[in-house]
């Protein structure tokens, strides 16, 4: 579960951008964003800013070598 991973410190950065306006999607996203803030994890909620941030990180070979990006589905 994504919230569990955030709470346990397995997540350093949360990129949470709703894929639709369905109530369940928005509710789940809200809970994930709240957990990110509550447990002091970095949070990005804007697609343009997320894209720019990821592109900037990709330019730093050391960062890419030392970190792994994991999408949400493995935590569902």
Give structural notes.
It is a single chain. With 76 residues, the protein is mainly alpha-helical. It has four helices and two strands; from the N terminus they run H-E-H-E-H-H. Strand 1 (13-15), helix 2 (23-38) and strand 2 (42-44) form a beta-alpha-beta unit. The longest helix is centred in the middle third of the chain and has 16 residues, at 23-38. The radius of gyration is 13 Å and the shape is globular. The model has no long low-confidence stretch (mean pLDDT 85).
Structural class: mainly alpha
Q: From N to C, what is the helix and strand string?
A: HEHEHH
Q: Please give the number of β-strands.
A: 2
Largest sheet: 2 strands, parallel
Percent in strands: 5-15%
Distance between the termini: 5 Å
Helical content stands at 40-55%
Average pLDDT figure: 85
Rg calculated over all Cα atoms: 13 Å
Shape: globular
Q: In DSSP terms, counting alpha (H) and pi (I) runs of 4 or more, how many helices? A: 4
Low-confidence stretches: none
Instruction: Give the spatial strand order of the biggest sheet.
Output: 1-2
Provide a quick synopsis of the model:
This protein has 76 residues and is mainly alpha-helical. 53% of the residues lie in helices and 8% in strands. The chain has helices at residues 2-7, 23-38, 47-58, 61-66, and strands spanning 13-15, 42-44.
């Amino acid at each position: 579960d994504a919230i569990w991973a955030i709470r346990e410190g397995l997540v350093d950065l949360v990129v949470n951008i709703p894929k639709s306006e369905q109530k369940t999607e928005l509710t789940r996203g809200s809970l994930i964003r709240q957990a990110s803030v509550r447990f002091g994890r970095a949070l990005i909620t804007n697609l343009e800013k997320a894209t720019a941030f990821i592109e900037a990180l990709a330019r730093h070979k050391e960062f890419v070598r030392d970190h792994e990006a994991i999408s949400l589905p493995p935590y569902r």
